[in-house]
Amino acid sequence: MKVVAAMSGGVDSAVAAARAVDAGHDVTGIHLALSRNPASYRSGARGCCTIEDSNDARRAADVIGIPFYVWDLSDRFHEDVVEDFMDTYAAGRTPNPCLRCNEKIKFAAVLDRALALGFDAVATGHYARLEHTVDGGVELHRAVDHGKDQSYVLGVLDDRQLRHSLFPLGETPKSDVRREAAARGLLVADKPDSHDICFVADGDNTGWLREKLGDRAPNHSGRIVDEAGEQLGEHDGTFGFTIGQRKGLRIGRPAPDGKPRYVLDIEPVSGTVTVGPRERLAVETIRAGSPRWCGAPLPDGSTTEVTVQLRAHGEEHRAVVRIEADRVDIELLDPAFGIAPGQAAVIYQGSRVVGSATIDATERVSA
């Protein structure tokens, strides 16, 4: 097959590209330019969108012996990922930009361009597995290394995208990938993993949002109250909070019982942030929308026992899901804490990813 290997400049994508070559594919390496001003994105080990990363990717491609190009997708990335990030926070919700990047950029814009240029598939360094079924279908499964598993952020991929994807690292522990990179002579073998949000230059999400949102934020200031409505403090922007947050509340006085307070609710129109004890974060029911199915969808009107993952590095929760048209109702058999609208609920059956949906609302455990 003719394969585009998306090379971020890190060790995982470099080894994935090399393995695609070993598998006999005709491989071309590409690096995505996601900002017209790369210095405004993270540098060093904290990001994946810098000039440094582009150079690391080019050097890795030279060692592997494959052609290498840079594809400028900065406009598409800004519109589909950065703008979505800002809009979601302004609405009092919590986005996952990495998931959105996979959906809109790596497996949509990149895949569409690759297919148009005559390529057959896109290979990435994600830790996930693809399994082909007897009827010719394809399923997305968790990686063997559950500590590095990235199937959660791939839960937005549909059947067509999966059929044109390769995940060469899904069967391999991360430690073995680093050793393999060193044996191949790849200089990124010891490069630290990227983390956090690549387009927030200094890691200060709140400061970045305050600067970028401007008048788009409904309220730059407002009240912090307890569940009885008593004012405990003030804030300078609801976008600085997320459901379940404990640190940085700046309330100034402890709860009567001396226990920490957590963000329970965010009302962006009035600018009100409600805080309370951790036990009030316990959620038993989730309503989600905009489902995307990785292969065959769950039938409309069906009720199915599954597990769900609600954060990129969160635990699995036993649940029952009910499908009604474009709505997914999730009843958690074990409560989850600090679940925020805007996050993704990714549905699993065993190791298989069934699909994902965006959380619209939650219902907490009765007091």
UniProtKB/TrEMBL annotation:
Superkingdom classification of source: Bacteria
Pfam family, one: tRNA_Me_trans_M
Protein's UniProt keywords contain rRNA processing: no
One GO CC term, this protein: cytoplasm
NCBIfam families: PRK00143.1 (NF001138), trmU (TIGR00420)
Residues covered by the tRNA-specific 2-thiouridylase MnmA-like C-terminal domain: 284-359
Residues binding ATP: A6, M7, S8, G9, G10, V11, D12, S13, L32, G125
Region Interaction with tRNA, annotated ranges: 148-150
Annotated protein name in UniProt: tRNA-specific 2-thiouridylase MnmA
GO molecular function: ATP binding; tRNA binding; tRNA-uridine 2-sulfurtransferase activity
Subcellular location: Cytoplasm
Family: Belongs to the MnmA/TRMU family.
Role: Catalyzes the 2-thiolation of uridine at the wobble position (U34) of tRNA, leading to the formation of s(2)U34.
Enzyme class label: transferase
Cross-referenced Gene3D superfamilies: Adenine nucleotide alpha hydrolases-like domains (2.30.30.280), HUPs (3.40.50.620), Translation factors (2.40.30.10)
PANTHER family on file: MITOCHONDRIAL TRNA-SPECIFIC 2-THIOURIDYLASE 1, TRNA 5-METHYLAMINOMETHYL-2-THIOURIDYLATE -METHYLTRANSFERASE
InterPro entries (UniProt xref): MnmA-like, MnmA-like_C, MnmA-like_central, MnmA-like_central_sf, Rossmann-like_a/b/a_fold
Entry keyword set: ATP-binding, Cytoplasm, Disulfide bond, Nucleotide-binding, RNA-binding, Transferase, tRNA processing, tRNA-binding
GO biological process per UniProt: tRNA wobble position uridine thiolation
Cysteine disulfide links: C101-C198
Catalytic residues (positions): C101, C198
Domain tRNA-specific 2-thiouridylase MnmA-like central: 213-276
Organism ancestry: Bacteria, Bacillati, Actinomycetota, Actinomycetes, Propionibacteriales
Site (Interaction with tRNA): H126, Q343
Enzyme Commission code(s) on record: 2.8.1.13
Source organism per UniProt: Nocardioides silvaticus
Catalytic activity from the UniProt record: S-sulfanyl-L-cysteinyl-[protein] + uridine(34) in tRNA + AH2 + ATP = 2-thiouridine(34) in tRNA + L-cysteinyl-[protein] + A + AMP + diphosphate + H(+)
